[in-house]
Amino acid sequence: MIEQIMEPETAGDPMGKSLNWTRKSTCSLSKTLKGKGIDISPNTAGKVLKALGYSLKLNRKSISTTHHPDRDQQFQYIESRVKKYEDMGQPIISVDTKKKEMIGNFSNQGRLYCREAERTLDHDFLSNATGKISPYGIYEKLTDKGTVVLGTSRETPEFAVDAIETWLTVIAYNRYPDIQKLLILCDSGGSNGYRKHGWKYFLFTKLSSIYGIDIQVCHYPSGASKWNPIEHRMFSHISKNWAGVPLRSHEVAINYIESTTTSKGLAIQAFLNEKEYQSGMKFDKKEVENAIKIKRDEVLPDWNYSILS
């Protein structure tokens, strides 16, 4: 039975190699077997896999960060905003763009149980890719649910706001029928950085002014992105789930994202956005702030502000 479970099968793989949408780890195997009435621990499952000729392949990477002088004050302020929105029952989302991924027969960092390693290209040249994706994630702190929008164009402020709009219209209104306010937690850089005037402009023109929602934005200090909840509550689990898996198509990426779960109940929906975005758009700070309704907080106003409807 274990061999049947481990035998990957997926339709439509252009490389002729079958893939399993579900992560083939000892924990997931143990869970699957328990569902079939066979009580086996993850450790025992690992021993059985080894006896069947499976081995584990490895690749790992780590990062370090720096400290900002206002770091602690901002953390405390974010905590107070989170508590306020929790008490109001209004949604809190943590957003960020996951590392860009090339689509094609490329090696992917990580390890998984298999009888032989996947054969991939020996060099990761963009010219050999069928495409590239920017996974923009939205993690709901109150519900432990997530959304990922895979962009095939450039990572821009407009793309970030469009991803949030997808979450809002497809998911949020069903989950929060009385939504009037929204708290967004995000990094200080990237497409949703605090210096990106286009980020504020599109939040107003595409979200708050259209849907009548007041949006509070709080940015994490530079060098503190790992404290953004989406990093350790959603992105890390996606990385583990597709570790060692060549992302040969958009379908493979979407299915591995949507099959990512945790024992605490994490569930993720994924969408593909093939819209073309223009990079290098210039936004003047004064012109933007005169055109939108923005209210800056008294505490660290560059990092904390509201886009009003």
Brief summary of the model shown:
The chain is α/β, with parallel strands linked by helices and 309 residues long. Helices cover 34% and strands 18% of the residues.
Q: Would you kindly provide a written description of the structure presented here, covering whatever features stand out?
A:
With 309 residues, the protein is of the alpha/beta class. It has two domains: 56 residues, no CATH class; 237 residues, Ribonuclease H-like superfamily/Ribonuclease H (Nucleotidyltransferase, domain 5), CATH 3.30.420. The strands form two sheets. Strands 2, 3, 5, 6, 7, 8, 9, 10 and 11 form a nine-stranded mixed β-sheet that branches. It has a two-stranded antiparallel ribbon with strand order 1-4. The longest helix is centred in the middle third of the chain and has 19 residues. The N and C termini lie far apart (57 Å). 31% of the residues are buried. About 8% of the residues have low confidence.
